[in-house]
Design a protein that fits this description.
single chain; 259 residues; alpha/beta; Rossmann fold; nine-stranded mixed beta sheet; two-stranded antiparallel ribbon; 34% helix
Length: 259
């Protein structure tokens, strides 16, 4: 790359211009199923394969072997024994919901797709099946969403370690097309307008700089945003989370994290 071709100072590096596959990590939660809809749209528009991944959580299965293991009803608060048989039945029911959701999401579309079912640690399985050219789509929170509004531990590990772009979807706010915002160092210059790759143009209208750098500023700027999304480099996200662990969960927009 020559000096004339180098990105200008403060301009974000563009994500990959093409997409190899769209991977959707599913667990039957509301956030996960909303992310599936976004993944189907993206895969359809880019004419690439959709891979839906469902992982039977090995850690959860192992915990059922303890004699004191129990589960607490999210609404009733009542406890009941957690046995291997009851957990296997719950996993089978969840897989059935995932299969039904996938079938409904792709109905009527000419889309290459497949469901991959595996058993292991969720984040490790998703990371092992992701490649640099993929886009990994997932919900901000999984089944833990019932305990409050926060970024799930699986989501956090994936956005920090995935070898590809990660699109983090938020079910609690209806998606509306709008600008993809990026953090601009110092004052944003009007003549610095990074291009939007074609696969992102299918989700967002344009790019818009945010001349800020701190978590509090970001939350204030986006607290009432109703359209578009936010683009962050992994290093930027790491810095923001050090300031405020719960920040990303409170930003009411889809989040695109690039390595």
């Amino acid at each position: 790359m020559t000096n004339d071709e180098a990105p200008r100072r403060g301009e974000p590096q563009a994500p990959s211009l093409d997409v190899a596959r769209v991977l959707a990590l599913l667990d039957a939660s509301r956030h996960s199923l909303a992310a599936l809809a976004a993944a189907v749209d993206l895969a359809s528009q880019r004419h690439v394969e959709l891979v839906a991944l469902y992982v039977e959580d090995l850690d959860l299965l192992s915990s059922a072997a303890f004699p004191f293991a129990c589960e607490i009803g999210a609404q009733s608060g009542l406890t009941r024994p957690l046995t291997p048989d009851s957990l296997q039945a719950s996993i089978a029911h969840q897989l059935q919901r995932v299969q039904q959701a996938l079938a409904a999401a792709v109905a009527g579309r000419d889309l290459r797709h497949r469901l991959v079912v595996s058993r292991g640690q969720i984040a490790a399985e998703a990371l092992s099946r992701s490649g640099p050219g993929d886009v990994l789509v997932l919900g901000k929170a999984g089944t833990s969403e019932r305990w409050g509004k926060r970024l799930g531990s699986t989501s956090r590990r994936l956005i920090m370690e995935a070898p590809c772009s990660v699109l983090l979807w938020d079910e609690s706010h209806p998606f509306r097309r709008g600008p993809l915002r990026w953090l601009a160092a110092g004052e944003a210059r009007e003549d610095v307008v990074p291009s939007l790759p074609a696969w992102l143009a299918s989700l967002f209208d344009a790019v818009s700089p945010l001349p800020l750098a701190h978590a509090g500023e970001l939350e204030k700027a986006l607290g009432h945003a109703q359209a578009g999304g936010l683009l962050l480099h992994r290093s930027e996200l790491e810095s923001l989370l050090k300031e405020d662990e719960a920040l990303i969960a409170r930003v009411p927009l889809p989040l695109l994290v690039i390595p």
